[in-house]
Design goal:
By secondary structure, the protein is of the alpha+beta class. It is built from 5 helices and 15 strands. The chain has a 5-stranded mixed beta sheet with strand order 9-15-14-11-12, with no helix packed on it. The longest helix has 14 residues. The two termini are 29 Å apart.
Length: 253
């Protein structure tokens, strides 16, 4: 997704789009979304507007962005019903969640769009006063149209081939034996590292992060998604401080 854009729409809306108050009024509409030709530079779009994610009544604006095979969006986070602004100069719940989303990705290092989206909602929960108030309404109303494992920021995954850098001998990663392994509920690795913690990450061949776990000590580690490990070719990276180790894995049926 090289060249992806981060787009926020601060406007009013309906199922067919998001609009400025003045002219020209159209920020993003179904017809604009359907006409985009941005190819593989698919963006990430979010908004406070009412209704552009109302998927229950025909194709909404979010779906038009997502369905465009010639471009459109890789991720859309729009309201399925009403979005709420605040009483000026204060900001409302929907506005704050969009701010939190951007903070999670660009300031807090939340590397997966699904986690950043969920966390931006979680940050409003302590302000919920109980009952079906405006706070809860906005939390439930904001919907994510995306693969939650999407990595929103450009950059290397850390598993690319490189002639630079040496792996510290203190950090070791042993994949399953035999390899290929048969898919099932989990796959086991042997991770060795100095220090108190390390991170184990599994990527598919496109460099997309599919699973990660923080380790608090060396030993055997289970990659367990909770719904089985799918067949495929994977690259596994162990990071401990400034050192790292990479192992390749093939999972078969």
């Amino acid at each position: 997704n090289t060249g992806a854009n981060w787009v926020h729409y601060a406007g009013h809306g309906n199922t067919g789009g998001i609009y400025w108050q003045g002219s020209p009024s159209s920020m993003m509409t179904n017809s604009i979304a359907q006409g985009l030709t941005n190819g593989d530079k698919a963006g990430i779009h979010h908004s406070i507007a009412c209704m552009p994610g109302a998927f229950q009544s025909g194709e909404c604006c979010a779906e038009a962005l997502w369905h465009n095979s010639g471009g459109g969006a890789a991720s859309v986070m729009f309201n399925t019903s009403y979005g709420w602004e605040g009483n000026l100069p204060e900001m409302g719940v929907s506005e704050w969640m969009c701010v939190y989303l951007t903070e999670e990705v660009y300031q807090n290092g939340n590397s997966l769009i699904g986690e950043a989206f969920a966390t931006s909602k979680d940050r409003r929960v302590p302000l919920w006063t109980g009952g079906y108030d405006r706070e809860l309404y906005c939390i439930l109303d904001w919907h994510g149209f995306h693969d939650p494992t999407l990595i929103p920021l450009n950059g290397s995954s850390g598993v690319e081939d490189s002639s630079q850098g040496m792996v510290s001998p203190q950090t070791s990663l042993a994949g399953p034996f035999p390899n290929p392994v048969v898919s099932g509920e989990s796959v086991s690795f042997a991770a060795g590292f100095a220090g108190s913690s390390a991170r184990l990450s599994v990527y598919d061949v496109s460099g997309r992060l599919v699973w990660t776990q923080l380790l608090e000590g060396s030993g055997s580690v289970l990659w367990n998604t909770g719904y089985g490990v799918h067949p495929g070719i994977y690259l596994v990276r162990l990071e401990a401080g400034s050192s790292s180790a990479v192992s390749k894995l093939i999972v078969t049926n």
